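Working notes for the structural subgroup meeting. M.R. asked for a predicted model of this chain before we commit to crystallization trials. I am recording the input and output together here so anyone reviewing the notebook later can reproduce the run.

Input as submitted:
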Amino acid sequence: MNFLKKLKENVYLRNIVIFLSVLGPGIITGSVDNDAGGITTYSVAGAVYGYQLLWTLVPSFIALLTVQEMNARMGIVTGKGLADLIRENFGVKATFYIFLCLLIADIGNTATEFAGIAGSLMIFNINKYVSVPLSAVVVWLLVVKGNYKTAERIFLVFSFFLLSYIISAVLAKPNWQEVGAALINPTFHWNEGYLTMTMGIVGTTIAPWMQFYMQSAVIEKSIKIEDYKYVRLDVILGGIATVVIAFFIIVACASTLHINQITINEAKDAAVSLRPLAGELASFVFAFGLFIASIFSAAILPLATAFYVCEGFGFEAGLDKKFNEAPQFYTLFSSILLIAVVIILIPGAPLIAITIWTQVLNGILLPIVLVCMISIVNNKRIMGEYINNRLQNTVGLLTTVLLVVLSVILLILPLVKIIVQII
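Returned structure, recorded in token form:
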């Protein structure tokens, strides 16, 4: 009773309590963005291009905040998921084709997470035929047998552990002057490798599935419009977490692997290569971060996919529902897990190709999702007074145009190479 009385009297304390009650969707969505695919993409970017691609994190951060804030606002105002809104405004046929492409990408993304689990635990001499099935069972039990509040608390703890990448970067002893110069003096190359990596970084920093998960998570927490300012702070913290972790992964690999001209194919290679260059602790911390990020994302990615597919086609969805209340939701979640595990356990599976091109596919699909979002969030009939302002529309449209241009260039470059060879 005394606490409740103090809470009513103390505005600052009340604000903190409200913020903690809505905390979660932004930070979790931002943190899970640094999954195995993201860590691999950032690691390869640092190893191949050094600090050159650090500048891409600045516009990615601005775009990420803008896009995620739109999601949160749409979820709070409409009480509907993004999938629901796309179906209602663009029709079932368009929704089907969009979701089919997203489903393929998300199966690849989930397979990448299990590749990250396998690779990280190989550093500790645990075979993938043991680590992958066991991890899949743990993830399945957490989601199917748990509830939203329990899962969210565990996910928030996982988010905290991702800060371990800061330790790896510091132990790598980077040249901070060169790091700063790379951030404020962008370099750009018109070659396929550089453009593919740029698209991969944008695609993994602002992945299409994130938009659906963010909006579903806001609805799951039943957040009201009066708490909108706290949700916006949650989104900002999530965006900062995403970019800070990505920054330190690139720095760690650039200051060790790139300088020593060591080639890597996946994040596990980065952890192994760090051992002789930055010490055993840096290697183990990098591998631990990869494991946490991978198992974290192995739960969220198929969960997000099950959310938006079921929402889009009118099936019941939600962690607080039992299996018999939402059979399609849990069946789809379980099926994606199973397919991803089978892919990873196939001997000689092309893991690096799956990882990098899944991120590129994310970047190609993102403009389609953004066009749908921008159209919906500017519809006064749906959003009322909470439509986008001019700045939000400008950032959203610039992000869309940039991704479309990069996609077209990536499609044209191989054709130009073939024509040049013929001539």
